[in-house]
Amino acid sequence: MSVSYTDSEVLRHFMVELFTSFIFSLIFNSRKTVTANLRRRVTNHLSEINVGPSSAYIQTPFHILRDTLDGNGVHPKCPELDSFFASRRLLDEVRSLGSPRFPTQLNAWLVHQVSATDRAEHGPSTSDDTDSSPGLEDLRDEAGCDSEHLPARGQEVEQTSPELGQGPGGAEACVFPQQVDEAKVKEEEEAFPITQLAHSSMLEQESLFDGNPILSDLEHRYASPPSSTVVDWSNLLSVTDFDELDSLVNLSELDADITSAISQDVSLHDATVSSAGAFGAGSGRSESRTVAQQRRTLLRLELLNSTLSDASPGMAVGLAALPFASVCNLTGNASSQSLLGGCLDEAVFDQINQLGLEGLDSIDNQLMNSLGCVDSQGLEDLDSDSGLSLESSYGGPASPGSSEMSSSSSLYCEDEGGATGYSSDVDSLPSKGMMDHTTVWPPVDLSENVWHDHSYSSPAFLNKPSLKLPQKTEAFSDDDDDGSQLEERELSRDELRARAMYIPFSVLQIVNMPVEEFMEILDGHGFTPAQVTLLRDIRRRGKNKLAAQNCRKRKLDAITGLQEEVERLQAQRDRLLREKQLTAKTMGAVGHQIRQLTRDVLARLRDGSGLPLSPERFTLQCGANGRVVIQPIRRPVSASAGNKTDKRKKGKKQ
DNA sequence: ACCGGCTGTCATTTC
DNA sequence: ACGAAATGACAGCCG
């Protein structure tokens, strides 16, 4: 086919081409910049796992990720997996918005535009992932076939990127009103010489322009290797299915969302870790705990006060007879009292003093003799009474009702002692232990160990004086049992056990001391096997208690984080839907303008017989470098559908 | 009496 | 092998 042109027509044609080529340059560069930015950012996200080629078809890296990470030495709790699955979840969510997959016509076109050589070598879904800036790499790839355009186009991209990067959505990237275009035309004319534009309009198909000497001259003057990348305008014009554009928008938004998702995950992870760390540090937790504990302690002390005020002298003696230096120190040591000020109010001490602690010395020996049998049974019994879970654990998995266990304490006490080995060794504990530990008991024990025993100060128990042990001696049980119970209700079960076994360390000390120190203590203090067992159990239980608290805190944090993520994803989905609608509107306007412009251009062109080119028979195509050519439509009816399927086939092949 | 939340504890697994 | 941590399950207490 040959087309004849007059000089004025040629000039007009070039002007039209100039204008249209700028429009396409804008579109291409915008799209290319979006795609390049997208690819660069996705690549950055995935760079840590560097699975090789990636592209705008980001599902491919995720599949590779899955294949790579599934069970290949990655711990299920690996944060990378969290990020990966969060990203994949986000991808699925974005997909669920109703948009088709990426290898649609427009996306194929965009990827096609981004890297012609990539497509030739790796296909639209692959590109070198090792480069930190794939967008620029694509430009370099283009330079391979059009090297003289590289600087100008590189500048274009560099100039366009910030514009696109300013707005979060695609609205800014998709605005193509004519006035803006004209302004940009003026701007870009400076950076994009008109010769290159003429070049861009280089009519590569010689058959089309063989008859025109000027065009031929221009063609030869600005001859360049024919671009292998030629995009049919109908590709763009056929973008009436804006879901394809939507997929692009979603893709760009997905990228940003992957960022946020990963950061969200990481922040969740960090929050979890930090919270765990805070708990591990212990100080913060103990501080936060203090208020509640003090509140509980006050309640308990109120109860204790009220009970003590009604207590019989026997109870007082029993309380005073507690063979613990901590209690003795309470009465005689002001410093200790000050240390305990947070836990026991002065009224308690006054009552204790009034109840005749002076007689403690006189009954000390008798008490020590009786403690051998009382401690092992009475205190263990107290433990059993106070904690039914303890019974279930020590006595066996099947835990009968609490009332039964309480009433049959005389029976299960031996079982429990046998299970734990406490009571038998308590019997063997001479007063030596008492002598030693009386001086070794740290004064802070009570204040430290009052916390977290809310379940042991049940009023029900305090209202049950019938829980005396039948094995106890008359004098001791009557005098000591109630009082010691009252006092020991304030202590944790492990604290009671420790006291019963004359362990000279507080539970907190046992739990918090380093392993080496703990082992030294176990080895160097001449503890009996029962004491060693108790020490280990106390340490284990204490650490497990903290671990359980941390675990629950983490669980709550995780739930909170997931709820926040759900809210964030819902907001993101709404935003994406809004942007999708906006993008569809924008692209509709752009498509309309382009169709109109195409008709304009074709109407101004003349074929060999001087007739204007029919838009039904010809179309405008734009190359990757912005060159616009006229091409006859081969299959005008099903051009778009055929192109679409072709692109898909190409994408699948590659 | 029932229920839900909190807590401690145990058993088990994992590191 | 041992200890620590994490966690599910269970039970008791409490409001």
Automatic annotation (TrEMBL):
<comment type="similarity">
    <text>Belongs to the bZIP family. CNC subfamily.</text>
</comment>
<dbReference type="Pfam" id="PF03131">
    <property type="entry name" value="bZIP_Maf"/>
</dbReference>
<dbReference type="InterPro" id="IPR004826">
    <property type="entry name" value="bZIP_Maf"/>
</dbReference>
<feature type="region of interest" description="Disordered">
    <location>
        <begin position="382"/>
        <end position="414"/>
    </location>
</feature>
<feature type="domain" description="BZIP">
    <location>
        <begin position="534"/>
        <end position="597"/>
    </location>
</feature>
<feature type="region of interest" description="Disordered">
    <location>
        <begin position="117"/>
        <end position="173"/>
    </location>
</feature>
<dbReference type="InterPro" id="IPR004827">
    <property type="entry name" value="bZIP"/>
</dbReference>
<keyword id="KW-0539">Nucleus</keyword>
<dbReference type="GO" id="GO:0000981">
    <property type="term" value="F:DNA-binding transcription factor activity, RNA polymerase II-specific"/>
</dbReference>
<keyword id="KW-0805">Transcription regulation</keyword>
<feature type="region of interest" description="Disordered">
    <location>
        <begin position="634"/>
        <end position="654"/>
    </location>
</feature>
<keyword id="KW-0010">Activator</keyword>
<dbReference type="InterPro" id="IPR047167">
    <property type="entry name" value="NFE2-like"/>
</dbReference>
<dbReference type="GO" id="GO:0000978">
    <property type="term" value="F:RNA polymerase II cis-regulatory region sequence-specific DNA binding"/>
</dbReference>
<keyword id="KW-0175">Coiled coil</keyword>
<dbReference type="GO" id="GO:0005634">
    <property type="term" value="C:nucleus"/>
</dbReference>
<feature type="coiled-coil region">
    <location>
        <begin position="552"/>
        <end position="586"/>
    </location>
</feature>
<feature type="compositionally biased region" description="Low complexity">
    <location>
        <begin position="385"/>
        <end position="410"/>
    </location>
</feature>
<dbReference type="InterPro" id="IPR008917">
    <property type="entry name" value="TF_DNA-bd_sf"/>
</dbReference>
<feature type="compositionally biased region" description="Basic and acidic residues">
    <location>
        <begin position="137"/>
        <end position="151"/>
    </location>
</feature>
<keyword id="KW-0238">DNA-binding</keyword>
<keyword id="KW-0804">Transcription</keyword>
<protein>
    <submittedName>
        <fullName>Nuclear factor erythroid 2-related factor 3 isoform X1</fullName>
    </submittedName>
</protein>
